[in-house]
Amino acid sequence: MTGTARSPRARYREQTRAEIKEIALRQLAEGGTAAVALTRIAKEVGLSGPALYRYFDSRDALLTDLIRDAYADLAAAVGRAADALVPDTGPRARLQALAAAVRAWAVAEPHRYLLIQGTPVPGYTAPPDTLDSARGVLGPFLPAFADGRPSAAVRPVAAQMTGWAERDAAVAEWVRRHVPAGAEGAALAGAVLAWSHLHGAIGLEVSGQFEGMGHEGATLLAAQIDSLADTFGLA
Amino acid sequence: MTGTARSPRARYREQTRAEIKEIALRQLAEGGTAAVALTRIAKEVGLSGPALYRYFDSRDALLTDLIRDAYADLAAAVGRAADALVPDTGPRARLQALAAAVRAWAVAEPHRYLLIQGTPVPGYTAPPDTLDSARGVLGPFLPAFADGRPSAAVRPVAAQMTGWAERDAAVAEWVRRHVPAGAEGAALAGAVLAWSHLHGAIGLEVSGQFEGMGHEGATLLAAQIDSLADTFGLA
DNA sequence: TCGCAACAGTTAGAGACTGTAACTCTTACG
DNA sequence: CGTAAGAGTTACAGTCTCTAACTGTTGCGA
Fold this sequence. Notes:
The structure is a homodimer. Chain A is built from ten helices and no strands.
């Protein structure tokens, strides 16, 4: 690996950065984004205030790093779930497994999920690599739709997605890494729809809007994913 | 109406509160929740700092008020859309119209939508009347599912919803106001699923995650709602 | 081996913000 | 018309981000 162990100084630096992030995550879990305060982190790590600016350009930079980490972590979780599937898993079961993996990650670390999905923090500091990160999460979903036959309801989406893949070479290349040629539109549409379903069901659950009702979460998401599989005629 | 004009003092008070909220909304639109600052509001309204605490107990109280207003506004928009439907509108068309109304409101005022759907602000200060507010938005969706036949995919959700309605009298009463008896489970399931679909598609669009792709938003939501109508066998 | 540049850390402080305390002026109303 | 409630004020304590200017340390090349 690159960057793991260079000079002793660089190693120490990485270690301190990691410690800062760890404390920031704890604060995030305890009080949301607003509770992440550099001064308090500094106190906890035994440094005095401005020293943290040696490690992060600003509070926003720290949060951005946290966001990137969360995306990577989620993508890894999804990837692990995909790898754990037995080879002859049907597309429907694959979909359910991947969706469950996303939800499990989100429920286990709600604050980190909210960090990803909520409005970033200040204005719209959408980092440019957000799209790539989303691709990392969504990639394993693509193959499930390779043999899908989109119903009339979602065919307009598939058409738009085909157009997108034709215009954007990077996207086309990404899709082609997961899916045989010819199925780009359907696969993309399926992935985006899956994303939207995940965002809806998990977002509601994680922001605690399912308090009164006998908590389902898993049931709701499973139902939506099952419907999605129906919509694409998956086996 | 009650509370419109009482004493001259009370009237002035209401006026000032309204002015404060107006400025707060502008700040919200310009820089997100973090940009709403009492001191700057005070400066703009011509008062000096702590005077605002005569009108709002705290910054959070102000934001909570903004959230309540946003919910009420959205519910009103949905209600208006429902009232505008011609009497013999089919359930599928009704669903599409209501969903489009929600999306239109959200796209017109993204910051207010994010205020509603995102993590409130600090921790989880979920106001107790959030559920009622959500009901106000969701109520008009219920009748669309009165004659619905949930598919196997969503039947587990309907079952859970039936159980919920049996346990929670307030919910049961609310549902019964919109839907004939016997259809509670299906109607509730449809409404919650619709909510989740809306949350997913609109949330992604409003947080700007659809940048690269040929912007759809409306297409995606329409497709999801159409699928939902399929799932419930709506005409 | 030594010198110095890059690095890690410090204190001091400016500026924005939330919220409290103590006080004064004004006005509605009994 | 006297007074209590309300609207507003200044002063201030405390938290936070971030900059400036300075000091101590370390590792690396000459």
